[in-house]
Amino acid sequence: MIYSMTGFAAGSRDLGFALLNIELKSVNSRYLDLSYRIGDELRFLEMPMREAIAAKVQRGKLECRVFLQSRPGAERAMQPNMALVEQLGRLGDQVRSAIADAAPLGVAEILRWPGVLADQALDVEKLQAEALGLLSGLLGEFVATRGREGARLDAILREKLARMRAGVAAVGPILPGVLADYQDRLATRLREAVANLDEDRIRQELGVFAARIDVAEELARLTTHIDEVERVLGKGGAVGKRLDFLMQELNREANTLASKSVSADVTAIAMELKLLVEQMREQVQNLE
To answer: Which CA distances in Å does 11 have to 24, 49, 66, 137, 274?
Structure first.
């Protein structure tokens, strides 16, 4: 299975005093780019959650949102962090010893100081276990959504590959007719210009033309690259970077085919191949 870099999952867990909410959403990116929207009281969850996400996701710009939603009527026991209060008192004494008219901190100011009021409902170890448990389930759902999107992209890419293969196969039968038509036109022009032209000169000119329009190598490379894209899709996993490289190779061969074309039919096929490659490249940009 191949995976899109676009995904979403969200869920919550009842902690009694509050609901723990986690939301994951991602779009395409060259690398794994993790960002968090998380409150200071939950900041300790960032590193363990980062490790859990990195174990499941390889590429994408992923935003993880974590927040607590208070439950109406739920009581939350609060008590001051006395060690921090005492530290603030000592700091206040030092400041007033240096600045005599400095006003001491009031009770309200102390209680508002970050970290002074410890929420007894926030048992760090329990909360981390609950958060990681919720995240584990969400990651399964998140990866599944990326897998379903990847399956749709897989079908799109295979349909375009089939059209490319048909286009490549259609070029070969056209070339003998192009060569025969050129031979007739060349012979007519040369005979009109030179009364005693020998057939060897015509054959020489025809050989030069045939070498110039020979696209056998380009057709073989296009077929090889199409085969490789199908192989990579069948292998699955993180295939985005490999497929992006193959799109460049397909585009290069399609360009060469167009530059060598002396037939409107071959030019039309080459242009269609370039269009299909560009359409596939847009889809490949979304693959992990």
So the answer is: 9, 15, 10, 9, 43
Q: Which residues contact 54 (CB under 8 A, 6 or more apart)?
A: 32, 34
Q: pLDDT tens digit string along 87-102?
A: 888 888 888 888 888 8
Measured in degrees and rounded to the nearest 5, phi and psi for residue 26 equal -145, 155
Q: How far apart are CA 277 and CA 271, in angstroms?
A: 10
Angle ∠(162,167,173) on CA atoms, nearest 5: 135
**Residue 138 confidence (pLDDT):** 96
Domain boundaries, the chain: 78-112, 149-284
Terminal C-alpha separation, the chain: 11
Question: What is the per-residue pLDDT for 170?
Answer: 93
CB 70 within 8 Å of CB 98? no
Q: How many angstroms separate the Cα of 244 from the Cα of each of 5, 209, 271, 278?
A: 14, 35, 20, 11
